[in-house]
Amino acid sequence: MRFAVFASGNGSNFQAIAEATIQGEIPGELAVLFCDKKNAYAIERAKKLQIPAIAFSPQDFATKATYEAEILHLMEEEHVELIVLAGYMRIIGPTLLEGYKQRILNIHPALLPNFPGLTGIRDAFESGVHETGVTVHYVDAGVDSGPIIKQEKVLRHSEDTLASLEQKIHQVEHRIYPEVIAEVLQNIQSKEERKKV
Ligand code: GRF
User: Fold this and answer.
1) Which one, out of 9, 64, 170, 191, has a CA that is 20 to 30 A from the CA of 58?
2) CB 111 within 8 A of CB 151
3) CA 17 vs CA 91, 162, 171: distances in Å
4) Ligand 1: does its nearest atom lie under 6 Å from the Cβ of 176?
5) Which of 5, 10, 13 to mutate to test the pocket of ligand 1 (most atoms within 8 A of CB)?
6) Which pLDDT does position 197 carry in this prediction?
7) Residue 115 sits in which domain range?
8) Strands of the 148-155 sheet, one edge to the other
């Protein structure tokens, strides 16, 4: 079963997912990395890992719908069955949501519904909570609002700095995202096999 990862920047989650796939921990094939930024560091990682990468940005298109239609076309051409957002800093619009119903995952660095948005780690840190964490969820039309698949807590100790908290959160992300992707792909596959019978 083929899947794609979408990223906009650093791509450390992409790398963890790619390595887990190469090591056989994810029962699928990482078909392509898609980036909405041509200079995303994730693309360098993809080159090193020999995973195909494609990048274009919404600015290259007249509307968001035509931008997403091009992505959809690419995904269909690559026979992608699951889209995995890993630091893809855009809201998914109706074109992609329609094309991949219940087939788009996202990871967020906080315990949703707390601290949604772009600065989840910082917001949790500054609010003074004693625990925050990581959430993997299906994507819907909202911001970090779809059905939750898995959450894991990360404790924030008094000696934690923003940087140390970030590091702990990323470590959890890199461990649990490959696990969840493996489970979701297995579920899709078993459902499809049941349909065939
Ligand atoms: C991660 O913290 C993820 O939860 C959030 O964006 C960040 C991406 O980091 N959605 P990276 O690009 O995978 O290093």
Assistant:
1) 170
2) yes
3) 21, 25, 13
4) no
5) 13
6) 75
7) 2-196
8) 53-55, 29-35, 2-7, 80-85, 104-108, 131-138, 148-155
Question: CATH number, domain at 84?
Answer: 3.40.50.170
- Structure-block tokens of residue 30: 């990482």
Q: Is pLDDT of 178 > 80?
A: yes
Q: Dihedral, CA atoms, 182, 152, 110, 44, nearest 10 degrees?
A: -40
CA distance 19 to 136: 19
Q: Which two tokens stand for residue 143?
A: 């911001």
Hey, how many other C-beta atoms are within 10 angstroms of the C-beta on 38? 11
Domain count, the chain: 1
CA of 86 to the centre of ligand 1 (A): 6
Residue 196: pLDDT band (50, 70, 90) is: confident
In this structure, are residues 106 and 136 in contact, taking their beta carbons and an 8 Å threshold?
yes
In the residue annotation, 137 being an active-site residue is answered as: no
93: how many CB neighbours lie within 10 A of its CB?
17
Average pLDDT over residues 121-149: 96
What residue owns the CA closest to ligand 1's atom 1? 87
Residues in Cβ contact with 116 at an 8 Å cutoff, skipping those fewer than 6 apart = 108, 110, 143, 144, 145
Q: Considering just the CA atoms, what is the radius of gyration of the chain in Å?
A: 17
Residue with tokens 């519904």: 113
Mean pLDDT value across the chain: 97
Token readout for 101 is: 């119903």
